[in-house]
Amino acid sequence: VLLGNYDSPPKFNTEIGTSITHNGFLLFSADTGTGYELHSTDGTVAGTSIVQDIFSGTTGSNPSQFIISGGDVIFTATAAASGTELYKITYNSGGPTVSIITDLWNGNQNGVAGNIGPLAYGQGVLFIGENSTTGAEIWTTDGTAQGTVCFLDLTNTSYGGMNPMFIIDGK
C-alpha cells in the first residue's frame, strides 16, 4: 500500500531512528501539515493515522530514537512546554497513546540529548539526561517518572560530566 512518498503529503522522515515496528504496527515520523509528528500504520490506508500531535501547530515534535524496552516503545520528542524529553507509547483498547515519561529539566529546556540514542538494557533504558542539578549525566528509566533517576553523576556539579557522545555497536 502506498501511503505517500517523501515529496508529497504525508512527507516521511527518512532519517535513521525515525521508525520502529511494535505490536503489529509501524510507528513513524511524518509531516501531514503539523510538522513531523508520530504516526502509526497497520499497512492499510484506513489503518494509518497520526497518533498524537505532541508539539501543537506546524513546528512538529520530530519523534525519533525509538527503542523497545520492557515491551514499551520509548522515544525522544520535543514539545513547546518541555523541550526534548523521553516519551512512552502505551496500548489500550483505543489504540496507542503517548505520554511524557518525565520532564527532567522543568520548563522548555531540553532534558534529553537529541543527538544520542537511548540504549536498552534489561527492563530499562540508559540515556544522556540533563537538568539544572546534575548537568548532562547518564540517566536510567524504567518508563515511569518514579523510575527515572540519575544513574551515574560523574562530576557532582551542575555542569555535568557527559559531553554528548555516540555509541557504536552498542559500546
Summarize the structure in words.
This protein is an all-beta fold. The chain is 0% helix and 44% strand. It contains no helices and 13 strands. It has strands at residues 11-12, 19-22, 25-31, 36-41, 48-52, 64-69, 72-79, 83-92, 95-100, 119-121, 124-131, 135-141, 149-152. Strands 1, 2, 3, 4 and 5 form a five-stranded antiparallel sheet that branches. Strand 11 and strand 12 (135-141) form a beta hairpin. Residues 164-171 have low confidence and may be disordered.
| Spans of at least 5 consecutive residues with low confidence | 164-171
Q: What portion of residues belong to β-strands?
A: 35-45%
Helix fraction? under 10%
Ends: how far apart? 38 Å
Structural class: mainly beta
Task: Describe, in short, the structure shown.
The protein is an all-beta fold.
Q: Secondary structure elements and their pairing?
A:
Blueprint: E1 11-12, E2 19-22, E3 25-31, E4 36-41, E5 48-52, E6 64-69, E7 72-79, E8 83-92, E9 95-100, E10 119-121, E11 124-131, E12 135-141, E13 149-152
Antiparallel strand pairs: 1-3, 2-3, 3-4, 4-5, 6-7, 7-8, 8-9, 10-11, 11-12, 12-13
Characteristic key phrases:
five-stranded antiparallel β-sheet, four-stranded antiparallel β-sheet, mainly beta, 171 residues, 13 strands, disordered C terminus
